[in-house]
Prior knowledge:
Blueprint: E1 10-12, E2 16-25, E3 28-34, E4 37-42, E5 52-57, E6 60-72, H1 76-79, E7 86-91, E8 94-106, E9 109-120, H2 121-128, E10 133-141, E11 154-158, H3 162-174
Antiparallel strand pairs: 1-2, 2-3, 3-4, 4-5, 5-6, 6-9, 7-8, 7-10, 8-9, 10-11
Helix pairs in contact: 2-3
Amino acid sequence: MYKIYLLVFIFTLIVPTYILGSYSYKNNNIKYSFPKSVLVSKKSDTFFYNDLGFRLFQGNCLIGNIYTTFPSKKSIQLIRKIEDKFINVDFGGEITTVKIREGFSNSNGSIILIDLGWKSIEDIKNFFDNKLKISLILKGGQGFDLNNYFNTNSNSWNIVGISKALDEATKLCNNL
């Protein structure tokens, strides 16, 4: 059964939003937020706070934004130099280019938000179909050396149940 947890705090991912409530669906966190959207996240197998996230916005619930974060021991001032730059990556066996959206300060340095793009929910589900785990490997920065900014070049997530969680998130999004 679904567990409902009421949360009142600021949560920053892509845009600042106030979380209104959340619950877990077979180890997939689903959160309602404002502006009206639904977040689905999977915990990293590698790092404590580096979820793989999917965000669906009211008004177009059949398309989702995929994103994740990577830790860095570098200062936020240094990380700001690579905001809006691109990285070649291997995401689930597919070579693609992703964008560094922004950096955030934390007690150990910085957290780098990486935008994996916008895709239809069906395309996302098809991409993850029959995969138990998925990884993201940073291959090379376009115009900068990854080693000067990132502590690690890979992350992985267990994605069992993600298709059903995305279906549930789509239903919730349509009811916002």
